[in-house]
Amino acid sequence: MAAKSFLEIFPSQGSSIFHYSVLEQTGEGILGYDDFGPYSMRDVRAEVWRLPSVLTAVREKQTTVSLSDSLHQYPSRYVQGLNPLLIVPICSSSTVIGFAGLSRHAGGPSSISQNLVHSLSIYGGLLGNVLSLDASVSDIPKLTNREIEVLQRVAWGESSSEMAERMRISEFTVQDCIKSAVRKLKAHNRSQAVAKAMGRGLIC
Known about the structure:
Elements: H1 2-9, E1 15-21, E2 26-34, E3 37-40, E4 45-47, H2 52-60, E5 64-66, H3 76-79, E6 85-92, E7 95-103, H4 114-138, H5 145-155, H6 160-167, H7 171-184, H8 190-199
Antiparallel strand pairs: 1-2, 1-7, 2-3, 2-4, 5-6, 6-7
Helix pairs in contact: 5-7, 5-8, 6-7
Keywords: DNA-binding, Transcription, Transcription regulation
Protein name: Transcriptional regulator
Pfam families: GerE (PF00196)
């Protein structure tokens, strides 16, 4: 509902919202919105590390404007004829948990005011807080201190053997903690578990 409201408040031709994975630098489609209403984008995956404007937006946590470098990376049925593309980072606290792409058929970059860009950046932060609050209220994961520490070390890039040595536990225990955290956070893998833990403020 919050994502749909965002796209309704800032109407455009061809809008979309993605979940963002910090570790994998990828975006997974969530919701699109056009003249006919909302539609699912679950089958769309964006490799953010290959999209300069999107990468800049999520790194600097500021709305960016792209004229062409991102459009050809998306499935043509979603972006055909759209220009320019505004990338809005969706943040929870200091962590980017997603981004929105807002496109226009006409008007060009001159039609995009600084007030609009500023408003989009602010609303992206508000949306991130709402989405995180909704998630935390409906399903608060009860991770153990050890599971949180393991996820934090995964975020730092440590291997299972390094974690086992530094935490003075077996690699089996490390793997068990990771699997348990992934399950509790309802994630698909350790990277998504780390992203969700960051979004909830469990790790940094």
